[in-house]
Fold this protein.
Amino acid sequence: MPNRLTKIVTRGGDKGETSLGDGTRLAKDHPRIALLGDVDELNSWIGVALAHLTEGAVTKTLIGVQHDLFDLGGALSLPGAPLLSAAHVTRIDAATGTLNETLPPLKEFILPGGAPVLAWMHVARTVCRRAERSIAGLLGEQPEGVQALIYLNRLSDYLFIAARFEAKRLGVAETLWSKQHSISGSADVVE
């Protein structure tokens, strides 16, 4: 395999611009560049979760997700390129369904926490939601963005369910929201 990256420090972005894969120069605060950053950050948080997971169904799915997100970032750097396909969505839906079958019904809201890996999966979920909002704002109903928008929406659901699955597998109690711990549920609140 030939060397693809021969020079990492190019100094091309020193003036607040960066290049897309097609050579187009954009300001670093352009919505497309922000979206690329959101996808990259999401991939990084999934990497943090993977570094603390043991081998299993969630690990296998998240490794595939990391590759999907890398592909998505590459496609985003080429305006007009198809981003993801219906097959990507089908795969994440199948993984979600498999995990969800093993979980008890959700009766309370869940807060991030319980164990570090669970909290990191929730961080990844929230970054995924940000990437979803970014892609909706940038591409909206444009054909190349539809499957990517759906994928990110389903991925955030997967990350929530995967955190629940891992909590159960690890024997860690999920952190449940409780009105009694909230100041809004306290009798001491003066309005």
